[in-house]
Design a protein that fits this description.
Blueprint: E1 9-11, E2 27-31, E3 36-42, E4 47-52, E5 57-62, E6 65-70, E7 76-81, E8 87-91, E9 96-100, E10 106-110, E11 112-113, E12 116-117, E13 124-126, E14 132-136, H1 139-142, E15 157-161, E16 167-171, E17 177-182, E18 188-193, E19 204-211, E20 214-222, E21 232-234, E22 240-244, E23 247-251, E24 257-262, E25 269-273, E26 279-284, E27 287-292
Antiparallel strand pairs: 1-24, 2-27, 3-4, 4-5, 5-6, 7-8, 8-9, 9-10, 11-12, 13-14, 14-15, 15-16, 17-18, 18-19, 19-20, 21-22, 22-23, 23-24, 25-26, 26-27
Bound molecules: magnesium ion.
Amino acid sequence: MGTNDLSFFEVIDPAFSQYVLFNAPVKRIAEGFDWVEGPVWFGDAGCLLFSDIPNDRILRWTDAGVTIFRQPSNYTNGNTRDRQGRLISCEHGTRRVTRTEWDGSITVIADTYLGKRLNSPNDVVVATDGAILFSDPHYGIMTDYEGFRAEQELPCAVYRVALEGKIEAVITDMACPNGLAFSPDESRLYVADTGRMFSNDPQEIRVFDIVAGRPVNGRHFHKISPGAADGVRVDSDGNVWSSAADGVHCIAPDGRLMGKVFVPEGVSNMCFGGRAKHRLFITATTGVYSVVLNRSGAQWP
Ligand code: MG
């Protein structure tokens, strides 16, 4: 644990002090899972949905406890909501991105590109114009862990599906794109690269400019250590909150590490939620944690 704190936080840049509440604990609010990911807040229902990937289920957390939202879930990983509030999910088992309609039925957003099957969609964001951007690394089909090892048909990429349904590959020069998040004004997109399995690919967060809805001019933004960035989120000041092996790191828009929130398990992802949207929900290996921050999330949902 760090110095100059009450053990939950480490201040590296003094500016970080304004983003955290030093008397707010990091709490484990749910436990007993195998690998949790894909947190998404539904303020209208007062609940958090998250994926427990190896157990093939999406769970629903409320103050009253955890219940099953969907099982089987086709090994869903990342989740978000579109501009109408509908659940958007990245499914490993079926190698597709889906939308859950208000009546509960499921619509396929994308499962192929140029006639070839996607790898294993991992994480997803929705732009103000309704376009869905998702990462498609190969992790879900590279091992027998989830029981559907398969031939890789497409390189790892980030895709954009326009509101009318047209799909295009918009990032093709990253080893294995994973988590992604827009800056508050959507002028930038941050994308975590976790590298191909069984490789020494460099792991970093890259930043892209958004031009006509597409990410361009990709460049190095920050390298997380220890561990690597899997999921990323952005607060209302434009700071990037990233998963790390020792918790959640807060990175200024210029790429400087400002501080850390320590979590006792390796973190995969996080999202802002709660009534004031300033409670950070953190999925971390076998448990879900939360901490109230002194900043709200920038992003929808
Ligand atoms: Mg991920």
